[in-house]
Write a structure and sequence with these properties.
alpha/beta, 4-stranded parallel sheet
């Protein structure tokens, strides 16, 4: 079965695990006891009772309340990932439920239905929120959450509106129409070259060496827009498209975008077949769009990027994948002028970004846009995809010590669901870091050559003061 160590008396892991019920070592030890008892050939009545109690308790204390984000591994001296163990347990349990497996495969094979339905549903809830206020929605949703065994999420005032429809670049328009019968149209100011990629007319006319990027808007950002209380009304993909345009990039989108998903929503539930199906479909689409990994690929949600990197089988893609912070760091710093547009902002680096080693770059990029950058100081926000919406005690436990200075008015991250949790527990709107970067930047001055790699002088000065820049 699973060979995870439970012998260490580790005191480090609780500092990164929410530990709503069980600490990591307790999850491991309890599961080992369940396996020991279940393998006994002739259990006594006392052993049967003990096994029943352990199984009943573990269902909530060990499984349901585990975020499975793997942050425990970061502090563990021998790098034990209890989250992987929990996901393996979930997969074993799901394999015994034929109905769940069939339903998940239907969802995977008809993902465009989900992609196109969720924004409308969120907008209906937003309209209800405006009419009756947040409290009635919270009461009703909490009752439904309890009645359905934590299947229905609990409403909070920072739940998102539906995302704006993604306007497909010309590069993907024909392919998307043939595969999805999509009715989306490219923006009126788009121009296409022989490859069918999108670029603004000015960029297309003045560019020397072609700048091309593959952009994968995650299913989360395609479905979830900003909160009703947020002054921002644009969706994440609109802000990234703005940055690409400022830097003169042609944008290519994978075929069948509305059906694409990294598979994380299935993988964290233990639905391995559905996760593998979506992962394989996406890998093939990315290979085709990026010319077998020759073009950089931007995924706008950090946890989705981590899932893609963990599941791909083609080595050529592994070094072509970027989340927004890393792409801006490597490709856009010399093409944009930065100005500090905020006095003080908070940032939260998602678990996946921490594990990918992006935390320092995240802070430095935010520092180019604001005079003061305040890290959240929280190892994990407890959201774990949608689990924190269904088990609200997870983010409540994780964020109980979140205490941002009063002068902080905005928060930024790179995971839409994490931003929802942080907003709800801080009282300020958290949104994607690309919102801040888009507000703080403009195309480099015309006096500088487009193909030049030198930065504007003000950016150079700021970068020089931060340990050699990004």
């Amino acid at each position: 079965m699973h060979t995870y160590c439970a012998g260490l008396r580790c005191s480090l892991v609780p500092f990164v695990c929410m530990c709503v019920c069980m600490a990591c070592r307790q999850r491991i030890a309890s599961y080992k006891e369940i396996m020991r008892l279940s393998r006994l050939p002739n259990r006594t009545a006392e052993e049967e009772e003990r096994l029943a109690k352990f199984r009943t308790g573990y269902e909530y204390d060990g499984d349901a309340t585990c975020a499975a984000d793997g942050m425990c591994q970061e502090k563990c001296p021998v790098k034990i990932n209890t989250g992987e163990m929990v996901k393996a347990i979930r997969a074993q349990e799901m394999s015994q439920h034929t109905h769940s497996s069939q339903l998940s495969m239907w969802a995977a094979n008809h993902f465009n239905v989900i992609n196109n339905s969720v924004p409308t549903f969120l907008n209906v809830l937003h309209a209800a929120h405006k009419v009756v206020g947040p409290k009635p929605l919270e009461i009703v949703s909490r009752w439904m959450n309890s009645y359905t065994g934590h299947f229905v999420p609990v409403w909070n005032p920072y739940m998102p509106k539906g995302a704006a429809p993604f306007k497909l670049p010309a590069s993907s328009q024909q392919a998307a129409n043939s595969s999805n019968s999509s009715s989306d149209t490219a923006p009126n100011n788009s121009s296409s070259d022989s490859s069918g990629s999108f670029a603004s007319p000015a960029a297309a006319a003045t560019r020397g060496i072609p700048r091309r990027v593959v952009y994968l808007p995650s299913c989360v950002t395609r479905m979830m827009g900003p909160a009703a209380s947020d002054k921002e009304t644009a969706s994440v993909h609109e802000k990234l498209m703005s940055l690409f345009d400022k830097a003169g990039y042609e944008v290519i989108v994978p075929k069948g975008l509305s059906s694409q998903c990294c598979g994380m929503m299935f993988n964290t539930r233990g639905l391995k077949d559905a996760a593998a199906t979506k992962g394989a479909e996406l890998e093939q689409a990315l290979l085709e769009a990026s010319d077998n990994g020759k073009l950089p690929i931007v995924v706008d949600t950090s946890p989705c990027l981590a899932q893609i990197k963990a599941s791909i089988s083609e080595p050529s893609l592994r070094f072509a994948l970027y989340e927004p912070v890393e792409f801006i760091r490597h490709f856009l710093l010399d093409k944009l002028e930065f100005n500090k547009v905020r006095d003080s902002v908070a940032i939260h680096v998602p678990c996946s970004s921490k594990k990918m080693g992006i935390e320092e770059s995240f802070i430095k990029l935010a520092s180019l846009c604001a005079h003061e950058v305040v890290p959240s100081g929280i190892p994990c926000c407890g959201m774990a995809g949608d689990r924190g919406m269904r088990y609200t005690e997870l983010p409540a436990a994780s964020l109980q010590h979140l205490n941002l200075p009063r002068n902080v008015t905005d928060g930024y991250s790179t995971s839409r669901t994490c931003e929802m949790s942080l907003s709800n527990h801080s009282g300020i709107n958290f949104r994607g870091l690309v919102y801040l970067v888009d507000e703080a930047t403009k195309p480099r001055g015309q006096q500088q050559t487009k193909g030049s790699s030198s930065m504007n002088s003000s950016t150079q000065q700021r970068m020089a003061t931060t340990e050699g820049g990004l």
